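Database export, one record per block. Field names are fixed; values are copied verbatim from the stored entry.
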Amino acid sequence: MEKGQIWLALRPMVTKEMQRRGRYLNIIERLPIKDKASRGRALQKRMKNSAVKFAKDAHWYPAYEEELLRFTGMSEARLDDQFDSTALLALGFEELPEMEEEDFESEDEAFMRSADPRKSLGQNSVTGY
């Protein structure tokens, strides 16, 4: 979430609603980037690498695509909210740690993998031979 006036106004309501429902979002506050061109670089990189998928048959897609294509970064665009939110999301993905296959395992699966008898077949637990 971009840490600005809008988020500072919404944060108490979002927090209260999360507490009421007992369901919590992992919200990471970011300092706002004034230069929209640099804000969009992570999104631009993902787009060039075909790492972004869109529901092109959705009713909202044509207007969304037009906004993304219209944005140049050279001037202030009147309609750039969708671009801003997508660019912020791409920046967040850039900061995520690398995920390993084990990160997606349940505790039972991890236990079964570690208790696999084939791993210790013929080995002494003390010496390892």
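Remark 1: The two ends are 53 Å apart (CA to CA).
Remark 2: The chain has two domains: 1-32, 34-98.
End of record.
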